[in-house]
Amino acid sequence: GPPFQFLQVQKAGAQGTVGLIRLQRPQALNALCEGLMEELRRALDAFEADARVGAIVITGSDKAFAAGADIKEMQGKSFQQCYSGGFLAGWDRVATVRKPTIAAVNGYALGGGCELAMMCDIIYAGETAQFGQPEILLGTIPGAGGTQRLTRAVGKSLAMEMVLTGERISA
Question: Which residues are known to be catalytic?
Answer without folding.
Answer: 69, 112, 115, 135
